[in-house]
Amino acid sequence: MNETRLAALRILAQAYHISLNLRRDAFRLLDVTLWPLVLFLSMGLFCQAFSPDPRAMGLVVLGCLGWRVIYHFQMEAVQIYMDNYWMGMIEHVMISPVRWWEFILGGAVSALGKILVIAALFLGLGRALFGVRVEAPWTVLAALLACAACGLVLAVFSMGVAFLKRGDAFAFIFAFPDAIAVLSGVFYPVTVFPGPVQALAALLPTTHAFGLLKATLGLGRPEPLLFLATLVPWLAGGVLFTSWALGRARRLGKLVKMR
Amino acid sequence: MHAVVVKQVTKTFGSGRPALDAVDLVIPEGEIHGLLGPNGAGKTTLIAVMVGLTLADAGSVEVFGLDVRRRLHQVQPMVNLVRGFSGVLEKVSARELLTYYALLYGAPKSRVDEVLRRTGLWERRDGEVATFSSGWRQRFFIAKGLINRPRVLFLDEPTVGLDLDAAMAVRELVREIAREGCTILLTTHYMREAEELCGSIDLIAGGRIVAGGTPASLKALVRGPDHPDPSLEDVFLALTRQSLEVGDE
Fold first, then answer.
1. Contact, A209 vs A215, CB < 8 A?
2. Would you state the pLDDT for residue A26?
3. DSSP symbols for A20-47
4. How far apart are the C-alpha atoms of A213 and B15, rounded to whole Å?
5. Would you say the C-alpha torsion B39, B40, B43, B48 has a positive or negative sign?
6. N or C: which end of chain A has fewer CB within 10 A?
């Protein structure tokens, strides 16, 4: 069997692991049902009550969706690693030929499945409850793919943190995508921030991915080149960091739950 | 050919004393090799270094001539690990969990059924591993250890906490696996188990290999007026205590 096929199977293994977890733990299903609905309905109803601008309601629907895309593409990969760690199985996984980026791509497969469910919920409810229609589906899809790419970059960094901090990484991993989304102007322009924060936000690919989403509603101009110009360095930095972190974790004996 | 060659491996965690101190060890191909030592002697750390889970500070490990540090990705498909007290995902069946491990190694689906039969787990294939008794759970981990047809299987205290019947069953499985040509490194606290299974043994204490050889040659080391007919336990106690006393000085 060639290496490409073996890598594909290891990626599939990670997606399979998540499916086992989803089935064994009903709480995980809330990730694609209750939690996104709480965000969506609270934001949507707030907007319906106070804002007559239909673009604001559109931004709630697309912003919630973009945020969840980033969250799932980041979270799934790290979740597989952390689950194996907590269950005392981590050495049985890390002794295998699995590579760190295969966790991330396996997580992406799972994230894609979850996002399809969430997108159906948000777009369906957005239309039924708030009268929001997606006018340019392909442009919206492209912007959501940009959000997914941002989620993957955050996943790369998060894997490195998980290798180094193990169980203690969890708080960071959960907070990371949400903090980034808020800082990137998920429902508002980043001009609401003070100058230094705006400068920081401009360096985040997530800011420009949300910008692409906003542009589909006529809120600002799309800046795909700016998006790529920020994404590529973040990705390169993440790859360097996580490769280093894995080597360091191996040196410190952190890939085993035994000493 | 030697299955595993460890040369001058040293490992220190933090600023404490070395967990492994210039360890040399050779595991001949096709043999069950014992690694015995008191708690904290460095057995598990040495295994982690041999399989590439932990990097040594100095020294080298070769598995079938491949350097573990430089060619880890080629070594990984050749080795596997079975430990006492490993955890499992709850509410997941033996077959499902083995399918996960099989995918990690690119093993075909038929291999899952093969190892389930091989370890006597076939009738329990759809049972939740987390609900298995410790004996059946250990069989599951042996099945997991065999999923990639390893050339070297590392068994870290595989019978710890098992009742007599379960431990005997695991030992019989270990013998069968070795008969099929798999090289095995076994750590255990049970001297009789080591004597029964191992063709050669290394004793480790305080991170150092203090003696090595066949069970008979190890006994010869301590035979004397105090121990006219020493057991492996006598050997273990005499050599590991002696070594730790020297180390403390």
1. no
2. 78
3. HHHHH-HHHHGGGTHHHHHHHHHHHHHH
4. 52
5. positive
6. N
The residue whose two tokens read 């069946």 is B93
Q: Are B17 and B207 in contact (CB under 8 A)?
A: yes
pLDDT tens digits, one per residue of A193-231: 999 999 999 999 999 999 999 999 999 999 999 999 999
Pair B202, B217: CB distance under 8 Å: no
* Model confidence pLDDT, tens digit, residues B58-108: 999 999 999 999 999 999 999 999 987 778 888 899 999 999 999 999 999
Which pLDDT does position B247 carry in this prediction? 57
Judged by a CB distance cut-off of 8 A, whether residue A172 touches chain B is no
Output the six-digit token pair for A226: 């700016």
Identify the residue whose tokens are 């949507």: A44
Q: State the nearest Cα–Cα gap between B105 and chain A, in angstroms.
A: 7
Closest to B102 (Cα-Cα) out of A56, A200, A9, A78: A9
Question: Beta-carbon neighbour count of residue A187 at 10 Å?
Answer: 18
Q: Which of A105, A39, A41, A45 is nearest to A76 (CA)?
A: A105
* Measured distance CA(A80)–CA(A99) in Å, rounded: 13
CB contact under 8 A, A95 and B101: no
A16 has a chain B CB within 8 A of its CB = yes
Tokens linked to B15? 């600023």
Low-confidence ranges of chain A (pLDDT < 50): 259
State the nearest Cα–Cα gap between A113 and chain B, in angstroms: 19
Tell me the ipTM for this assembly: 0.91
Report the C-alpha gap between A166 and A245 in whole angstroms. 11
User: How close is the nearest chain A Cα to the Cα of B47, in Å?
Assistant: 10
Sequence-ordered list of residues with C-beta below 8 angstroms from that of A145, at least 6 positions apart, any chain: none
